[in-house]
Write a structure and sequence with these properties.
By secondary structure, the protein is of the alpha/beta class. 45% of the residues lie in helices and 16% in strands. The protein contains 15 helices and 12 strands. The strands form 2 sheets. Strands 2-1-3-4-5-6 form a 6-stranded parallel beta sheet, sandwiched between helices. A 6-stranded parallel beta sheet has the order 9-8-7-10-11-12, sandwiched between helices. α8 runs parallel beside α9. The model has no long low-confidence stretch (mean pLDDT 87).
């Protein structure tokens, strides 16, 4: 047997199977460590599980994969619905690491077929694929304790370990810029189901109450609009009914590569609100926190775990109705109490730097990869 020097990171070959920006972030971490990284982009299993399996078993595709992947040490894939990657790893005799980090592990009964795109438990095939993925993965990484608890309910895997999502604190940090009276909320994409799960309409009602005493404030809705979904029309209609349409600013997300511009914009905002029904972590919220922007988050799922004592927690109420009164009260506290505002601004920066920095995730992933490779090369 040939012994490999694992101290030389370039001797470790890892294949990252891409399905999202989160996989791209970990790919960056692996490249910074010095691993020999191979990347494969795969179809979105949440929207089309059959499509990925057809791709997997195309003879020509399989031949190409085998030639490149036979020398790989570890397979790495985001989302616990990636059974195609787990199956491929078993066929090729390679250890597989799966990151459980999204709606695929959401077990809430409130998330019905209306939310089938984002939540695997709304479809029997997706549900079984998630269960098999978690059960047969050689290593499971959960992005929060909330995520781990949910994953364990679906399929208990003794290797499941919490490694928090991370923020690049070199790009996202406090800078001296003029603050604007902006209350910011972010949404990955603007579709009907997300309007409910992100709590947009109750946030509008809360903001309406804020504008009575503070007419100078604006609500910034940052998210990509998907034409044909009707979501943007519904949102604008409600804003018009509440008389706040002229006080709501709709912005598209900053593009990949524009992180510094986005961080600069975050620093200009006064308050960040994450009024979600469910979040497995809350990357956008942490990006705001580490820029010194105090946050108000809902009291559901992973948000209280991530915020800790570095932000304010608002009652979420029912999914569609929310609790606008309590949300408005928490936002008002940050507007009216300068000492509280400054205190939470500093605490937010410290909490992200001490718990969710890219360097922390890098060291934990490095340890896990080393352990996996050591076992596979014995």
């Amino acid at each position: 047997m040939i012994k490999m020097d694992l101290k030389n990171q370039s001797n470790i070959r890892i294949c990252v199977f891409h399905r999202s920006i989160h996989g791209a972030r970990d790919e960056t971490i692996f490249n910074e460590i010095g691993y020999n990284v191979i990347v494969y982009s795969l179809p979105d299993l949440l929207s089309s599980p059959i499509k990925s399996f057809k791709c997997l078993f195309r003879p020509l595709q399989w031949s190409k994969w085998y030639k490149k992947l036979k020398c790989v040490d570890v397979f790495f894939a985001w989302w616990a619905i990636s059974f195609d990657v787990v199956l491929l790893s078993k066929i090729m005799g390679k250890p597989c690491i799966i990151v459980a980090g999204g709606g695929e592990i959401e077990t809430s009964k409130d998330l019905s077929k209306e939310y089938s795109y984002a939540y695997a438990n709304s479809h029997i095939l997706k549900k079984w694929m998630t269960k098999l993925t978690l059960k047969f993965a050689d290593k499971v990484i959960s992005v929060s304790n909330y995520t781990k608890e949910n994953a364990d309910k679906i399929a208990k895997n003794p290797t499941n370990e919490v490694v928090y999502n991370s923020i690049d604190t070199e790009k996202f940090k406090p800078v001296k810029v003029e603050k604007k009276p902006y209350i910011l909320t972010t949404v990955a994409f603007m579709i009907n189901s997300v309007t409910n799960t992100k709590g947009i309409l109750p946030l509008f009602e809360a903001f309406t109450k804020i504008t009575i005493k503070h007419p100078e404030y604006r609500l910034v809705y940052l998210g990509n609009s998907y034409e044909g979904t009707g979501a943007k029309g519904i949102i604008k209609k409600r804003a018009k009914e509440l008389g706040i349409l002229d006080k709501v600013i709709f912005m598209d997300f900053f593009k990949t590569g524009e992180e510094y511009a986005y961080a600069n914009f975050l620093n200009q905002c006064k308050i960040y609100v994450q009024y979600s029904w469910n979040e497995t972590f809350g990357v956008a919220m942490c990006e705001a926190m580490v820029c010194g922007v105090p946050v108000v988050a809902s009291n559901r799922t992973a948000l209280p775990e991530v915020v800790g004592n570095a932000g304010l927690i608002a009652d979420r109420g029912e999914m569609e109705k929310g609790n606008p009164d309590d949300l408005a009260e928490k936002i008002e506290m940050l507007i009216n109490d300068e000492n509280l505002y400054n205190k939470l601004s500093k605490k937010g920066v410290e909490r992200v730097r001490n718990n969710f920095s890219k360097e922390i995730r890098k060291q934990k992933l490095k340890r896990i990869i080393k352990e996996m490779v050591s076992k596979s090369r014995k």
